[in-house]
Design a protein that fits this description.
With 296 residues, this protein is an alpha/beta fold. It is built from eleven helices and ten strands. GO terms for molecular function: DNA-binding transcription factor activity; sequence-specific DNA binding.
Length: 296
């Protein structure tokens, strides 16, 4: 049996095109021309003697052979990238790098970090915050803690930690707090609501769950990130909306109140990591996170 492989450049071009779903995006990522990628794809198909793509509208669709090669080549390149990253670091005991949104990190994770260090003293954890572009496939990231809805990506191992529950919160310092705290949920329809661009559907989804027409909502001050919106709510600047874990400490301390409770959404707070990077530390962390969430 021949051990000859196709040209590496052809495999790289294919893997990028299959992953990104676009020859143009693959060319941009590989820093080559569109034509160069197309030529490499043709070289690969000729070498293998099978078609890897078929045209679908203005784009490309993977054939069955293409899907098989994509899955195998993606795993192979990812393993190479990870190994090279580990060799570059020059250390076997690298920290476990966990990514999450800055809001989740600041409002939920950091207040519990001391307990995690006490419960899992051997876990060297490095926390990496980001907003909007969180991707568990990002180089240098071992896992991602995120609110997301199923179905999960096929290449991800996912630990479901808790169902997302979301609801409005308001500070006793808010000027209209006394009028609102015993009012029905539809009283918020005329209230200038604090909102965030990172969760634009939060208020409309909540409104629908409470038999309120989303178009009846009135929006007040907007913020780029959830963390800033919740700080504004604590300061008494208006009514905000957030996942329950992110306001748990404020509710216990009386800085915020949730007069209308929390509603479950289709989303889960979950720990994601690529299947190819199965790590016992991830399972250990997931078990701790699940237990910690149950305490709230």
């Amino acid at each position: 049996m021949s051990r000859d492989l196709p040209p590496l450049n052809a495999l790289r071009a294919f893997e990028a095109t299959a992953r990104l779903g676009s020859v143009s995006q693959a060319a941009e990522q590989l820093n080559v021309t569109h034509g160069a990628v197309s030529r490499q794809l043709k070289v690969l198909e000729e070498h293998l003697g099978v078609s890897l793509f078929v045209k679908e509208g203005r784009g490309l669709k993977l054939t069955d052979a293409g899907i098989r090669l994509r899955d195998t080549s993606s795993e192979a390149f990812d393993r190479l990238r990870n190994l090279c990253a580990e060799l570059t670091k020059g250390q076997v005991d690298a920290p476990f790098v966990l990514g999450c949104s800055g809001s989740l990190l600041a409002r939920w994770f950091i207040p519990r970090l001391g307990r995690l260090n006490a419960d899992l003293p051997d876990l060297r954890l490095h926390l990496s915050a980001g907003e909007g572009d969180l991707d568990p496939r990002r180089p240098g990231l071992d896992a991602l803690l995120v609110f997301a809805e199923p179905p999960w990506p096929a290449d991800m191992q996912v630990y479901e930690l808790a169902s997302e529950r979301i609801g409005p919160v308001v500070s006793p310092r808010y000027a209209r707090y006394e009028q609102l705290r015993h009012a029905p949920a539809n009283a918020l329809a005329g209230e200038p609501l604090l909102h965030t661009t990172s969760r634009p559907q939060a208020w409309p989804s909540w409104a629908q769950q409470n038999a309120i027409e989303p178009k009846e909502l009135k929006y007040g001050q907007g913020f780029e990130h959830l963390y800033y919106m919740l700080e504004a709510a604590v300061a008494g600047l208006g009514v905000a909306i957030a996942p329950e874990p992110l306001v748990a400490q404020d509710l216990k301390a009386g800085r915020l109140v949730a007069p209308w409770g929390f509603k479950q959404t289709p989303a889960q707070l979950a720990l994601w990591l690529p299947k190819r990077a199965a790590d016992g530390r991830a399972r250990q962390l997931a078990q701790w996170l699940k237990a910690e969430l149950a305490r709230d």
